[in-house]
Amino acid sequence: MTDPAVRVILDASAIIAFCRESIDVGEVIAEVADEEGSVFGLPVLCLAEAARVVADQDRLALLVTHRAAEVLSPDPDSWRALAVTLDTVGRVDAASAVLAAIDLGCHVLTGQPGLYGGIAGGGPVIAI
């Protein structure tokens, strides 16, 4: 059995949008869930950031326990890359999201594409 493929990373803004019932985020999640062997990534630092402002904690829990969700933690060996990326994007949660996307060869779903403007080519982002 192979590990599921992470198709997209949700950053804090996308997680917040989902908790506010964003159709755009829901559609992306549904597309990933429909693809056998695929998951969407939820960086733990983005979850922590989103949890600070989300009013609907039940909906956040629903997202985390979704059958196609995978909670991602930063690789401890990548701390230097995280530091450099943090310097570029200005937020540790966003830095962890874009690093995960780069490492996994996918995109970041975001409501704040400008955060990633300092990354080469504007970063691997899909704006919602």
Protein architecture, described:
With 128 residues, the chain is an alpha/beta fold. Helix content is 47%, strand content 18%. It contains 6 helices and 5 strands. The protein has helices at 12-19, 23-34, 44-51, 57-64, 79-89, 92-104; strands at residues 5-10, 38-43, 69-72, 107-110, 125-127. The protein has a 5-stranded parallel beta sheet with strand order 3-2-1-4-5, with helices on both faces. The longest helix has 13 residues, at 92-104. The model has no long low-confidence stretch (mean pLDDT 96).
List keywords for this structure.
alpha/beta; 6 helices; 5 strands; Rossmann fold
Number of domains: 1
CATH C-level class is Alpha Beta
**Measured distance between first and last alpha carbons:** 33 Å
List segments where confidence is low: pLDDT < 50 over at least 5 consecutive residues: none
CATH topology heading: Rossmann fold
Which structural category do the helix and sheet elements fall into?
alpha/beta
Helix amount: 40-55%
Percent strand: 15-25%
The tally of strands reads 5
Query: Average pLDDT across residues?
Result: 96
Number of helices: 6
The radius of gyration computed from the alpha-carbon positions, rounded to a whole number of angstroms, is: 14 Å
What overall geometry do the principal axes of the alpha carbons give?
globular
For this structure, what is the CATH homologous superfamily? 5'-nuclease
Q: Report on the biggest sheet.
A: 5 strands, parallel
Instruction: Return the string of H and E elements.
Output: EHHEHHEHHEE
Can you name the CATH architecture?
A: 3-Layer(aba) Sandwich
Spatial strand arrangement across the major sheet? 3-2-1-4-5
